[in-house]
Each structure stands twice: as structure tokens, then as C-alpha cells.
Amino acid sequence: MPTIPEPEQPEYFLDSFPRDDFPAYVWTERPTTLPEEAWTTETTHRDGQQGGLPLSTEHSLKIYDLLCRFTGTSGAIRQAEFFVYRSSDRASLEAVLERYRGGAPIEPTTWIRAAAKDVELIRSLGVRETGMLASSSDYHTFHKFKPGGRNQAAHTYLEAVRMVLDAGIRPRLHLEDATRAPMDFMRPFIETVLEISEPYGPALRPKFRLCDTMGLGLPYEDVALPRSIPRLFQTMRAIGLQSSDLEFHPHNDTGLVVANCLAAVRAGCSVINGTMLGKGERSGNAPLEATLLHLVGMGYFRDNQPDFTSLNELVDLYAGMGEAIPPKYPLYGRDAHRTRAGVHADGLNKFWWMYAPFNVPKLLGRPLEVSLTKESGLAGLVFVLRQHLGLDLAKDDPRLLKVHDWLMTEFDNGRQTSVEWEELAPIVKRYF
After folding, report:
1. Which of 289, 320, 351 finishes a domain?
2. Which end of the chain is more exposed for a tag (fewer CB within 10 A), N or C?
3. Could you tell me the CA-to-CA distances from 171 to 134, 163, 168, 242 in Å, in that order?
4. How remote is the C-alpha of 45 from its chain's centroid?
5. Residues 376 and 316 reside in one and the same domain
6. pTM of this prediction exceeds 0.85
């Protein structure tokens, strides 16, 4: 038998897992590259719509208002970007600009292609900043343009940048496909943008959004460019860009989207661009709620957090739009905090922290739940009756056993689906 120290009190690692906050990062050594500030910008009205969200003007405004309620005075989401090509998109933009001028916390910006004709669309809209698509990999520069190539692409982009600066609008260059792009293109292009922007003063200092368009980035420093997210942002900092000049816009095609966001911040990028609840093309964009949970853990927004409970209304709004999030979607899915295993239900009964990652009811406004299956046992039934009726029952309570017998008969007769409270309630009423 090994000799294992027996503490007087259990060790819960409360520095890492505080009772009333999200899990915290306890650094062995705080990274020197970590920005002083970090925040997010959102592209639900652009990339979310592009990925299939059916956004009417009414829905666009509801989403904007909900995100403003979520961010409050925390500064968690600072900007939102909008299309300008359709009349409904321009109506949405005009309405949120009015809200922003009235004190709403999220600044509306636009998204255009880095082309002269698109600049004309935004000259008179009243935005202070615009995103500009500047595809950067040879996959794009050689095949989007005729005859194609890096220099033709750069010339087209720079012409549009000059027009945006002349219009008094700050350019935000979206370096599309940066995780497949040669630094031989990106470095001189960025340096030229900085050079032509300098005479316009600090108010129009450009920003650069690095896009992991196909979700191919990796969160490791010991991987070569262009796939290494840390190396990519270290290179940007070496060029002379500040943390606040940089944004990261990743997709989730290979499942590493949140890990890559955190790697970008850790390497000196202040701003993550994504969508709330991960809506977006193909496998989706960076989910801002998960990213911000980790930014809180890193120590950002400690004294003034966004309101994560407000996102439950957004979950319901998306469901009403026919774009419900999957049942097992992290944090906000219907089953994200639901167990069907008896051993887990037993743990929830004895010490609910055992099977909760943090104080889910308080921080997310969502309950810890148990669905009753043939595996959930008496413990699952005890949990459900405590949750709905406030009863604290022993496992040998005769009434409990009668309800359990009914459950087992259901499953013995071939039932495969779980039993939820709505179906169980009349059975319980017979015996309690």
C-alpha cells in the first residue's frame, strides 16, 4: 500500500477553480508577450450571415442589442462589422450607428473588398473604420486576379487603402488565408500600408486582421510558418505592430479555433474577432463566449465582467430563426450541463462541484440537469426530484422505488429515449 499524504481538508485548488468565478489561469510564469489589454470584435452580422444566419434588419438589431447588453461597460466586445451591399444591411448599419451615437457600447464598422468601387459605397455612411479584404496567400493572389500574382494584388489593395484614408476612415486590412501566406508578401505589404498611412496621423493608423481562413493554424511555437499562430504574431510584433494593431480571425475547420485564439493572445495579439455562439461559414467562427471565458481566466475583465447569463436569450433567438445551436454545444447547448450517467448523478447529489466545471447556474444562468435513462439509476431520480420538488430522499424510500420501477419497466420494454420531467411529473404525483 503506497504512503499517500492525508490532508485535514480536501484540496480543491481554489486559486484555479474559484467558487464564484470562471476557472483562473495560475501562471507558473506570466508570459512576457501577454498584452496589457485584450478584447473581442464580432462579425455575426457579416460572417455569421455569410455562414447562413437569415438576418433581417429586425434580427440584426436584436442581435446587436443583445451583444451590447452582454458586454455592458466591460469592453469585452468593442466593435461589430456589417455588410453594406444590400439595402437591408445598410438599414441595419444606419440603425446601429444611431444606437452607438446614443451611447451603445459596440462601435459599428463595415466590411468591403479592398477595391476602389467598394470604397465608394462607404464614403458617406458615417463609419470611422472599415475592414478591407486583402487576400494574402498565393492560393488567392494568383487565382483571384487576372493575370494574377502578388504585385497586382498588392497594387489593387493599396489603391483602395489610399482612397479609404482620403475619406477619413481608418483601414483594417483583413489578411485572408494568412496561415497559408508567404511572409515575402505580407511583410512588404504591411510595411507599405504603414508608410502611406503615417501622414494621416494616429487617428487613422491601420489595423491588421490575420485570418486563419481554412482553420489550418496550429497553436504551437515549435511549428514553422505559416501555420504557427504564435510565430505569426511574433513576426507581426517584430515588424513594429503593437498588440492593439492586431486582430485574429480564425475558423474552426480542424477543431482548434479556441486554442488558436488563446495562442494568438498569448503571443501578443490584443483582439480576437469571431461570432457569438460560433455562427459562421462551414464549421463556424471563433465562439466569442468561449474565448471570453478564457480571457476572464487569464485575468482580463476581472473587475467588470460581461453578462454571460444574457446569452440565453440569444440561444432562444437563434432557435426561433431556425438556426438553433446543437444540443451538445459547449456552455449553452441544451445538453451541455446534462448528465445521463448514474455515477455522475450520484456525484451531483453528494457534492455537485464534482461534476460541474464552475458555478454554472450563477455564471451562465443555466441549470445542472439529469436526464433519466436505464443508466441513470436511483441517483438520477433522487437528483430530479430534489431539483423539481425540493425533496431530499433516501434511495430506499418506498415512493422513490415505485417511480423507479415504472422507469425500469419503460426501458425493459425497449424504450431508447430518455425520460424528462414533463413526462415523469404525473407518475411522481401518483406516489408523492
Report:
1. 320
2. N
3. 11, 10, 9, 16
4. 14
5. no
6. yes
